[in-house]
Design a protein that fits this description.
3 domains, 4-stranded antiparallel beta sheet, globular
Length: 645
């Protein structure tokens, strides 16, 4: 029987303990070169993300990644009007014990203690909630007005019908909500050793603001990244702006950034879904055939130069006829009551008109592979139906500005939070202004916080211009569209029939909104919200404070007008009496009226119903401001009152 022996080969270093390998000159030279050579390129090229075909994706494969980086200038708790009883019970006990000690006798020590207690009361404990399709994800709780989280949240979602093609995903109309809250924890016991026990504390989260963007905007751009201004309500009861201001970007003189909150976020879809776009062909004509053929060639030429930029030259009207977009631009009269409200302040009139347009409900965009087949209504139809898409809002606002003799054009581009957008560009004496018709806000061209990301196309009643500048960000664009080196125009200057016959009416006739209908709707909204608040609190009783509700009902009409002080001396004295017994937090939220469910969703997102404090009372007031043609501005004021213990 043969014995198989496994022979192992040993090196000299395995046998000799003090063996040192002799390094040759070539090895030494190679080691020195490895130390001095560049580890990576100074400007590494960005790798393109791989796109996945829709038919290879199933449930659970696609996720929305949201990274919450940091925030700037979050409001702090305002305890000047509240008593020291706002502090946790265990903290009050330790304070009273310290004050009786002999070590704290001097005035200086007392002042230091008071400053420490004030900083403890005023410190905000913010956290962020990401909500999508009724699923909520939360970050950890930070501290201070300028917190840093740097946390990534993976959001799961399921496509309707389990179809993950681009056309199916584009039908998702849900919004992605990013809400900022302040977490307050009050201990039930004086012993600080019970602090870590959840059963010995009450948790209350106070809503501070939000950022909302549609899922379609994320689907269209594949990622949303940057520092964005948070939508803060005009009044935050129980909070004040932080005294320590930190600028998220370079200073901007045109806006008081010390009263603005910013949030740095990054959102994307992983993996990215591929889709194919089709070029529209000419269909049924109403304009001259040669003009439409020129428009088609113009579109193809512009797309060949800059494939990712928007260009729209023709659309379909309500009769299904293909016409030039220039025929939608015409000076139209706004409601007469707007003209009579600010006779000596034209800028206030323009702001009021922009607000009126922003209150018209918007039809959500549905992205389609067959991009280019748009149907636009006239401004009169948009007013009568009290609804419209983004472009119809911009056309209506542009036509109103033309009525005042403004030099106004419709701007097509892309916004980071809204996807494809339509703005109104007005030329002033020494600057250009960018108007967002969906929010009513006006931004200067060099505003670093303007949400507009790209300027692609301009059109008025005479021509269409395509931006051929290499950098199409608003701050870098030259808006002098007469220069052919910056802008490519559709129709030449000597083209006959440049200003085609408009499809807009000569005048818009407005009708008054029924006031009795407004009162019935207000009562129905208030009853529904109160029932929902009680439904959302199944384990705690829901008590309503009538005195606070009475005060809030007086304040709401002043918020809509936005003039003068929000609180009169009488209301302020009544509020002071409330602060003697309660710690009050609250806020008003405003939205255009579309349906009752959208108001319920907006109130639910604030999380005001989730308070676990004992003896908590609530106040709710609703106000509806009517505008012509049943355009309504809905205000809901919510307040939470915690009785001093």
């Amino acid at each position: 029987m043969k014995r198989i022996v496994k022979v192992s080969k040993f090196n000299l270093s395995d046998v000799v303990a003090d063996y040192e390998e002799i390094v040759s000159a070539s090895q030494l030279t190679h080691a020195v070169c490895k130390l001095v050579e560049r580890q990576r390129k100074l400007k590494p090229p960005r790798k393109e993300r791989k796109k996945v075909a829709a038919h290879t994706v199933c449930d659970g494969d696609i996720k929305i990644l949201v990274r919450i980086l940091r925030a700037y200038n979050i409001p702090t708790r305002n305890t000047t009007g509240n008593r020291a009883l706002d502090l946790p019970t265990y903290l009050k006990s330790s304070i009273s014990h310290l004050r009786h000690k002999e070590t704290i006798k001097s005035v200086a020590s007392e002042e230091i203690l008071n400053e420490t207690l004030k900083s403890l009361r005023d410190t905000v404990q913010p956290f962020v909630e990401v909500s999508f399709q009724h699923t909520v994800y939360q970050t950890s709780t930070a501290s201070g007005s300028h917190p840093c989280w740097n946390e990534e949240i993976k959001v799961d979602f399921i496509s309707p019908g389990h179809d993950y093609s681009f056309s199916s995903l584009s039908k998702i109309t849900d919004n992605i909500y990013i809400n900022i809250f302040d977490e307050m924890i009050i201990e039930k016991h004086e012993d600080p050793y019970f602090k870590s026990c959840s059963s010995h504390s009450h948790i209350r989260k106070n809503w501070l603001g939000s950022i909302v963007f549609p899922f379609s905007a994320l689907l269209q751009q594949s990622e949303i990244s940057g520092t964005f201004q948070v939508n803060i309500p005009p009044v935050l009861l129980g909070y004040a702006w932080s005294k320590t201001y930190v600028s998220p970007k370079e200073e901007y003189n045109g806006q008081n950034l010390k009263e603005c909150t910013f949030l740095n976020i990054f959102a994307t879809i992983e993996p990215q879904i591929s889709h194919v776009t089709c070029n529209p062909e000419l269909d049924k004509f109403s304009d001259q055939t040669d003009v439409l053929e020129r428009a088609l060639i113009f579109n193809k030429t512009c797309k060949a130069m800059f494939p990712n930029r928007r260009i729209t030259t023709t659309v379909f009207n309500g009769e299904g006829l293909q016409i030039l977009v220039t025929r939608y631009i015409k000076a139209l009269n706004p409601p007469q009551q707007f003209l009579d409200m600010f006779l000596h302040d034209p800028n206030a009139t323009l702001d009021l008109i922009a607000r009126f347009v922003s209150l018209i409900p918007i039809v959500p965009d549905i992205l389609d592979e067959n991009d280019g087949f748009d149907i636009w209504m006239t401004s009169e139809r948009c007013i009568s139906l009290a609804t419209g898409n983004k472009e119809e809002h911009a056309i209506l606002l542009c036509n109103f500005f033309l009525y005042f003799g403004k030099k106004a054009l419709v701007l097509l581009g892309t916004s980071m939070l809204e996807g494809q957008v339509a703005y109104v560009l007005t030329q002033e004496t020494d600057e250009y202004l960018l108007w967002n018709p969906l929010t009513g806000q006006c931004h200067k061209q060099f505003d670093p916080f303007c949400p507009l990301q790209s300027v692609d196309c301009l059109f008025d009643d005479g021509n269409v211009w395509f931006n051929i500048q290499q950098n199409n960000t608003p701050m870098a664009v030259h808006f002098d569209y007469s220069k052919e080196s910056f802008w490519k125009q559709l129709l030449p200057k000597n083209f006959q029939g440049t200003k085609a016959r408009t499809i807009q009416p000569e005048e818009i006739i407005y009708c008054e909104t029924n006031k009795s209908m407004i009162e019935d709707l207000k009562n129905r909204i208030e009853r529904t919200l109160k029932c929902k608040m009680m439904e959302w609190r199944p384990k705690q009783p829901t008590r309503w404070n009538r005195q606070c509700t009475y005060i809030l009902r007086k304040i709401l009409p002043k918020l809509e007008l936005g003039t003068g002080s929000f609180v009169s001396s009488e209301e302020e004295s009544e509020f002071e009496r409330l602060l003697q017994f309660y710690w009050v937090t609250g806020f008003p939220i405003q939205m255009p009226y579309t349906d009752l469910q959208s108001i319920i969703d907006a109130v639910y997102q604030t999380g005001i119903h989730s308070s676990e404090f004992p003896q908590t009372e609530f106040a709710l007031a609703v106000y509806i401001h009517p505008y012509p043609n049943n355009v309504l501005s809905v205000w809901v004021y919510l307040a939470s009152l915690a009785r001093h213990q």
